[in-house]
Amino acid sequence: MITFLSGKIVEKQPTRVVVDVNGVGYEVFIPLSSYDRLPAKDETFRILTYDHIREDVHLLFGFVTEVERKMFVMLLSVNGIGPKLAMSVLSGMSVKEIPVQAVEQKPEESSKSVS
């Protein structure tokens, strides 16, 4: 698993960044909250990553803070939420705005009726 990358920013867009790590360019998808904190192009930096591997795709998702990465992983644990939707949530809301109790709630608990 790739847990972080250290290198220079080659390309920088609101939803993705390309990082040159010793001559290898890694495309990393990022939330808007991380984009705002990235250094300028050609500067060296470190980005935390989540390595998403399926049989048909290998994608890297990046985060400037550990809190963002943990929330991303927590969102992935929710049935029906994949990495692209989790990135959209993080792009639209700050980590503080996401109701952690709802994300952590187990499916059995959410289906129980309130008496």
SSE topology:
Layout: E1 4-13, E2 16-21, E3 24-29, H1 32-35, E4 44-54, E5 57-63, H2 66-76, H3 83-92, H4 100-104, H5 107-111
Parallel strand pairs: 3-5
Antiparallel strand pairs: 1-2, 1-4, 2-3, 4-5
Helix pairs in contact: 2-3
Can you tell me about this structure?
The protein has 115 residues and is of the alpha+beta class. It has a single domain (4-110), classed as OB fold (Dihydrolipoamide Acetyltransferase, E2P) (Beta Barrel). Helices cover 30% and strands 35% of the residues. It has five helices and five strands. The protein has a five-stranded mixed barrel with strand order 1-2-3-5-4. Strand 1 (4-13) and strand 2 form a beta hairpin. It starts with a strand and ends with a helix. Mean pLDDT is 85; it is low at 109-115.
Number of helices, where a helix is a run of at least 4 consecutive DSSP H or I residues: 5
Which of globular, elongated, flat, extended, rod-shaped describes the shape? globular
Number of separate domains: 1
Structural class: alpha+beta
**CATH-assigned homologous superfamily:** Nucleic acid-binding proteins
- Secondary-structure element sequence? EEEHEEHHHH
The average pLDDT is 85
State the total count of DSSP E strands. 5
Strand content: 25-35%
Largest sheet: 5 strands, mixed, barrel
The CATH architecture: Beta Barrel
- Could you tell me the CATH topology label: OB fold (Dihydrolipoamide Acetyltransferase, E2P)
Distance between the termini: 45 Å
